[in-house]
Amino acid sequence: MTVVSLKRADEPRPAVQNRLGKIEIEDFGLRYETANGPVDAVSGVSLTVEPGEFVSIIGPSGCGKSTMLNALAGFLKPTSGAVLVDGRPVEGPGADRGMIFQQYSLFPWMTVVQNVEFGLKMKGLHRSERRRQARTLLGLAGLSQFENHYPDGLSGGMKQRVGIVRALATGPRILLLDEPFGALDAQTRLIMQQILTNMWQRLKISVLFVTHDIDEAVFLSDRVYVMTARPGAIKAEVAVPLPRPREHALIMSSEFLALRRGLMSLIREESLKAMGGEINADALKGLAANFDGHDIAKAL
Amino acid sequence: MASAAAPAAAPARPELPQAPPVAGSARTRRLGLRGAVSGLPVRPALVGFVSLALFVMAWHLLTTYRVNVYVRFANVPSPADVLASAETAFLSGTFFEHVGMSCRRILFGFLIAAAVAVPLGLLMGRFRLLREAVFPVSEVLRPIPAIAWVPMAIMLWPTNEQSIVFITFLGSFFPILLNTLHGMSTVDPVLVRAARSLGASEAATFREVYLPATLPQIFTGLTVGMGVAWVSLIAAEMISGQFGIGYFTWEAYSLVQYSDIALGMIAIGVLGLASSFAIRLIGRLAMPWSAAR
Ligand SMILES: Nc1ncnc2c1ncn2[C@@H]1O[C@H](COP(=O)(O)OP(=O)(O)OP(=O)(O)O)[C@@H](O)[C@H]1O
Ligand SMILES: [Mg+2]
């Protein structure tokens, strides 16, 4: 693992030492046993998320981002290393870690408000009390008028919003999001980013956010981890010392663009590797030479 | 059924709240049964009526002119004959005793089958060992038609009544079991994970996710199972019954009351239709979310 620190925040991060919601992943490795032999999805990853911090992970497709989140959520056991939440190893799934999956995961047989209530019901809350809490949260997310709809009738953006509200309803310390806005159009995506930021600031929880989108990662995060192609490892850790609250005009600022450029070049290397390595610099040169020859042949 | 009403009842796709508020109208659209009740499809109903009328007309013509082209309509009762025998049958009351008897057998056989096959299918879907143990046995027994069970059933059960109910049970058991099992295998794993990460225990996940996710397949199984239950029941009644609509139909043939044959057949058709309609209705009520599709 090579850690290329582009830029570190000089000032210490907001000191929230005694709050809960700390994630520590130490030398984490996960190997899938498949019919074609073992596949190392992730190897030797270490990362931390401080309580109340917003951290993103970007990396090429198949580098093990979902695998890592699933281990944090408690669905997969690490084959090496440790996954700790507030100093304790993750034993299994639980409501202290909210998870937003890469696919839509609302229960189609429950209305919006029933979906949001689900976690509270599992906690054993009384019916009227959980309904009241679910309604309050839906109101905050601007979803009140849809509380009795079934998910099938909702747009993609609304489904993801309900998913986030549902995950937050149980009062988790940590929110894990796996490319939650990947399937949304650009406009909806911006709105969703704003909503997520608002909720995060209001609830003061820790967020680990997986995305493909560099702009999204920079705009939302306190820090960004860049992963290598499979087997995934941490290639770089980049601090984002942009002031909050952040407005969307920020993405035109020179600080933003500098961060974006740095991340872009880190990612490009890995994406090329992830595509199988056959498109390396030499191959590109050879391609150019061929075109030159072609041009000459045509000119003659 | 559902597709006929779909275009009229298709829910508006509510967009972000910034969009002009369509919420009021969307709210009325969500009521599940509305599409089934108020949005009566006029055209299909009309076409259906005309086609039924044409069928009766053809039947009438074929029998009154005693058409005889290889298939012989000479002895087939005409619609008017059947109507007349229906009148006497309805007045005498024994006809309804036969119908009531058949319905009772269906109810018992089918309900017992559902009560055993649905939980068994759910558990088999969840626990591999149970599936591996039960599946081979059910695969061997499944292809045996209910009618082939008649002699065995008579030996197994003390009364005739019980053996007929048993055969009805067998007919509906396997379609319900297999559909439930299949439904369990198609439950979206991400929904299971979502429930677990919201704090659901193993038992709660079973109740709150596996069961509702499998309901559509369960109801497919119930509908198919109901159809096979009638097929099995009629066969059993014709062979070993003393009552029942199947017995009524067969007896009419023995007693050369040909119009009663057609009456019995029509009664079987209507009863089968009514029972599968009832199941579909219960399905709608049990799964209000699927009406929104
Ligand atoms: N259940 C599994 N069995 C075997 N291999 C798997 C399994 N799940 C994932 N993998 C492999 O592990 C690697 C990491 O998968 P993962 O889904 O974590 O990647 P990802 O970074 O989330 O990718 P994407 O950005 O496309 O979602 C991939 O190469 C994938 O093929
Ligand atoms: Mg993924």
UniProtKB/TrEMBL annotation, chain A:
The keyword Nucleotide-binding applies. It comes from the Bacteria. Residues 23-254 form the ABC transporter domain. The keyword Transmembrane helix does not apply. Pfam families: ABC_tran. Keywords: ATP-binding, Nucleotide-binding, Transport. InterPro entries: AAA+_ATPase, ABC_transporter-like_ATP-bd, ABC_transporter-like_CS, ABC_transporter_ATP-bind, P-loop_NTPase. One of its GO terms (molecular function) is ATP hydrolysis activity. Belongs to the ABC transporter superfamily. This is ABC transporter ATP-binding protein. The lineage of its organism: Bacteria, Pseudomonadati, Pseudomonadota, Alphaproteobacteria, Hyphomicrobiales.
UniProtKB/TrEMBL annotation, chain B:
It is a multi-pass membrane protein. The chain crosses the membrane at residues 40-62, 106-127, 139-157, 163-181, 228-249, 261-283. Residues 1-23 are annotated as: Disordered. Residues 99-283 form the ABC transmembrane type-1 domain. GO terms for cellular component: plasma membrane. It holds the Pfam family BPD_transp_1. Residues 1-16 have a biased composition (Low complexity). It is found in: Cell membrane. Keywords: Cell membrane, Membrane, Transmembrane, Transmembrane helix, Transport. The keyword Transmembrane applies. Its main location: membrane. InterPro entries: MetI-like, MetI-like_sf. GO terms for biological process: alkanesulfonate transmembrane transport. Gene3D superfamilies: MetI-like. Belongs to the binding-protein-dependent transport system permease family. Probably part of an ABC transporter complex. Probably responsible for the translocation of the substrate across the membrane. This is ABC transporter permease.
